[in-house]
Amino acid sequence: xxxxxxxxxxxxxxxxKNQENINLFMLDFKKMNPEEFQYNAYLCSDGxxxxxxxxxxxxxxxxxxxxxxxxxxxxxxRDESGLENAPQIEVMHLVAAAQNIF
Length: 102
Hints:
Layout: E1 2-9, H1 15-30, E2 37-43, E3 49-56, H2 59-66, H3 69-79, E4 85-92
Antiparallel strand pairs: 1-3, 1-4, 2-3
Helix pairs in contact: 1-3
């Protein structure tokens, strides 16, 4: 299993557009096999810091998701928006879960 946490901060005036872009790629993700991954995006209380946490069953599904056109468009627009804090990528390891992930 691969677990990745990405944290970044956008300019306040880009936050709504970023949320719209996230919703667009999530629609595409929902059309894929949800038994092979979990992907959640969160907005922090400051209204402009986002945290994405993804669980991938394997590298194959991770690569598939990262190549979805709407996801690539989201990343491009986010990165070109004038970020306050660039994406920080953390690879994490599962210690325990209350439910089965895969």
